[in-house]
Amino acid sequence: EACSKVVEKGIRDVVVKMQKEFKLDKFGYGAFFHRKYPQEWKKIEKDWDQIFSKAELQVEIEIDIIRTGLINTPIIRRKSR
User: Fold this and answer.
1) DSSP characters for the chain?
2) Using CA atoms, how far apart are residues 12 and 2, in angstroms rounded to an integer?
3) What is the pLDDT of residue 62?
4) How many distinct structural domains can be found in the chain?
5) Where would you tag: which of 44, 61, 63, 72 has the fewest CB atoms within 10 A of its CB?
6) What's the pLDDT tens digit per position in 24-33?
7) Is 29 among the domain residues?
């Protein structure tokens, strides 16, 4: 859970910076909205940048650690046969 919280905060910080500071939809929320709600998209398409920059987004992360040590060199190396 602690790992999820750290990753979640990092992602949230990047999304908010892109959204509020740069006013960019680099993660494709507009494209997702367009596919899911095509009729509504036609009404807001022209104002999407402004709408997106003020939207409140939720970030939820679920991490399952399957195995640790995958990016580190093993402490004890196996002897070659």
Assistant:
1) -HHHHHHHHHHHHHHHIIIIIS---TT-HHHHHHHH-HHHHHHHGGGHHHHHHH-------------S-TTS--SSPPPP-
2) 15
3) 86
4) 1
5) 72
6) 999 999 999 9
7) yes
Containing structural domain, residue 46:
2-54
The 10 Å CB-count burial string (b at 16+, else e) for 10-25 is: eeeeebeebbeeeeeb
Backbone angles phi, psi at 66, to 5 degrees: -85, -45
Domain annotation covers residue 11: yes
Q: Which of the four pLDDT bands, split at 50, 70 and 90, describes residue 21?
A: very high
- The pLDDT score that the predictor gives to residue 39 is 98
Say if 18 falls within a structural domain. Answer: yes
pLDDT for residue 81 = 57
